Amino acid sequence: MTSLIRHDLRLLLRQRIAVPTLVLVLILSAAAVWAGMAEVARQHDIIARIKPQQVEDVKAIRAWVSKDGDAGNAAYYTFHATWDAPSPLAFAALGQRDVAPFVLRVRALALESQIHEGENYNAEMALPGRFDWAFVLTYLAPLFLIVLLHDLKSGEREAGRLDFLRVSAVHERALWARRIGLRVGLIAGGLILPLLVGGLLSGAAAADLLLLSTMVLLYLLFWTVLCLLVSRRGMGSVANAATLAASWLTLTLILPALALLAVNGAFPVRQGVELTLAQREAVHSGWDKPKEQTMEAFFRQHPEWRGTKPVEGGFHWKWYFAFQHLGDLSVADQVRAYRHGLEARDLWTERLAFVLPAIGTQYLSHRIARTDLTAQLDYQDRIRAFHKRIRTFYYSYIFNDVPFGAEDFGRAPLWSGDADRR
Amino acid sequence: MTTVPTTAPRISLKDVALTRGTRPVLRGLSLTVNVGEIYALLGGNGAGKSTTVAALLGFLKPDAGQILVADIDPVENAERARREIAYLPENVALYDQLSAYENISYFMALSGTEPSREAMDAALDDAGLQPEARPLRIGGFSKGMRQKVAIAMAVLRDVPVLLLDEPTSGLDPRATADFNALVTRLKARGTAILMVTHDLLGAADCADRIGFLAAGQIVEEVVPSKGMDVLALHHRYGEVAAA
Known about the structure:
The complex is a heterodimer of chains A (422) and B (243). By secondary structure, chain A is an all-alpha fold. Chain A is built from 17 helices and two strands. In chain B, strand 6 (161-165), helix 6 and strand 7 form a beta-alpha-beta unit. Chain B is 36% helix and 25% strand. Chain B is globular, with a radius of gyration of 18 Å. At the A-B interface, helix 1 and helix 8 of A face helix 2 and helix 3 of B.
C-alpha cells in the first residue's frame, strides 16, 4: 500500500498541472494566513496604543477638572477605552472584524449613538470581504480540487490507458480511492499546514484548529463527491471541467448571493446610523422639555437617586445626564428590533449553511474564529455593561453633589478587556 | 502462477451473445483456449474481436452464454479474474512522465507484485528493449518501444492467461518476429494466449489454432500445420471477413 501511494504520488507530481496547482494552494493559503496575521497584529497594535493614550487623556482632563472638582465635567470629558481583542484564530477568518469597530472610546453620555456611529463604513468596500484563509478555503480551494479531479478517469480514457489500467489494477476501487485521496490530501495539506503554523504562532487552541481542519476535510469531501458525480456521466475532460466550473460559480457565488439577498429582504434591518440619528434627536429634544418631566422620567428608571438634591437653575449635570440616559431608553425598542433583525438574519444564514456548503464554511469559520455576528453583539453587550458601570460611578458624584478630585479618576471603572467575553 | 487443472481450458466462451447499444455484436460465440496454447482470433472490422476481449476482461456483460477465465467469471469476479490475466492492448498507452522501469514498477505494483530491477531487466531483455532506453521517460518512445515495455509487463505478470489485442500492429518485421518468439516462449511456460489479430502470417507462424470470427461467431477454425497453404488461408480469410 505504501509503495502504491509512493508510486501514485510520483505520478501525480510529474503531471504538468499538479505541482503548480499544489504550490499555488500552499502559497495562497500561506499568504492569506500571513495577511490575516498582519491584520490581527495591526488590531493588537491599535489596542495596545489605546491604553497609554487613555492614560494621557485622563491626565490632561484631570489637570483642569480637579481644579474645581466638577464631577459633571469629569463625566462629560473623560473617554473610557473599550476594545475587543481578536481571538487567536481571528487571523484565519476576519469575519465582521474588518467592518465592525473593535475599539470604542465611550463617555457617560447616551450610548447607542456612540456604539453605532462607528458603523458608517463603505458598504461597497465591505462587500468583497477580506482576503483571508477562509476566503481561500471557501472560494479558491474548490477550483484547485476541480483542476486535479476533473480528468481523473476521463484523462485516462482520453489517453487510451483506462482499460489497461483497470486490468492491471487488481483492486480497481483502491486505485481510484488512492488517487483521489492523494489529491484531496495534498490540497488539504496545503490549506491546513499554513493554518496550523499560524495557529501555533497565535496560540490558538488545539481543539479549534482541529475543528477548522475537520471543516476543511468535509468541505473538500463535498467537492470531491461532486467531481465524482460529474465524472460518472462519462463525458470528456473538457466537458467535466466546464460542468464543474459552472457548479462552482453556482454554489459559491450565485446561490449564496441570492440566498443572502432573500434573507436580507425577508428581515429588513434599519441601519445603525439611523439608530444614531433617532437617538440624537431624542437627546436633543431633552433640551426643550421641562426639567421636572425629564427628572421624573429618569427617577422612574433610577429611584435610588430620587431623594437627592433637586435640580435648580438653568443647567445642571444631573438633568443633562438624565436626558442623555433617557435618549438611550427612547430608542430601546429600535435597538432591540435592530438586534433581533440581525439575529434573525444570522439564524437563517445558519440554516442556509446546512444547504449551501460555501455559506456553511464561511459561517463556521467565523464562528470558530469568534469573528461572527455573535462575537460582535457580545462586544456591544460588554460595552453596554461597562457603560452602566461608568454611569453609576459618575452618578454617585453628580447626584450626591460630591466634588470629583484628582484621585477619583483612579477610581473610575476600567475595561476588563476580554474577561467578560461570552 | 495459479494452479488450474490442466484439463480445463483457461479461456472459455460458450454460446456468448452480447449486444452493444442496439447492435448484436456476439451471436453465440464459443471458443476455448487451453493451457500452453496460442489461439489466434481473426476477423474483419466489426466482427466482434474487440468486444470479445472486452468481455473477457469483464468490461462487458454478455446477454447470454458463459465466459470463464481461469475458471472465473470475469464480470462477477472482476478483481479475481484480473489477477489471472495479462493484457496487451493494440495501442499501448503508458505514462509518458515515467521511465520504462517506473512504468513497469507502477503497473506491477497495481497488480500486486514488486519485481526487482534484475527481474525487470530480464523481462525487458525478453521483450527486446535496449538497456539504454530503460531509465528514460517513455514520452519519447516509439510505438514499438512502448509495446516492448508492455510486453515486459506481461512477461513479469507470469499469469495463466494472456490477452493480446493486435499485438504486432505497428511493429517492424524484426520486432514482429521477436514478439512471436517471445509469445511462443510464454506458451511453453503454460500460458493460455488469446491473440486478436489481423496478421494472418504472424498467426499462422505461432498460433496453435486460428479461429475466424464473422458476425459475432466463429465460422471456421483451422489448425496451422507445416506446409499449410497460407495463401489459400489468406483467400479464405478474406472471404470470411467479407462474410
